[in-house]
Amino acid sequence: MAEPAEPAPAAEAGPARRTDHSPWNWLLLIPIVLPLVTPLYNRDAPRLWGFPAFYWIQLSFIVVGVVTTTVVYQMTKRR
């Protein structure tokens, strides 16, 4: 009679399960929530190179998104 096989060690079972529960991921909420705060940029002044604040502040949100995504990636990537 055959005995039941023992469970395989974790290394043979496949790649380790990745967990994405780093607190750095909370920074990704900034570029999501910031454009939703419309009183922050719903105005004409100050102008930057002739552009109303409504436009250049929204363009600056792109930079904020890139910076926060880069920071989160650098802090959470595997070494």
TrEMBL record:
It comes from the Bacteria. This is Uncharacterized protein DUF3311. InterPro entries: DUF3311. Keywords: Membrane, Transmembrane, Transmembrane helix. The chain crosses the membrane at residues 24-41, 53-73.
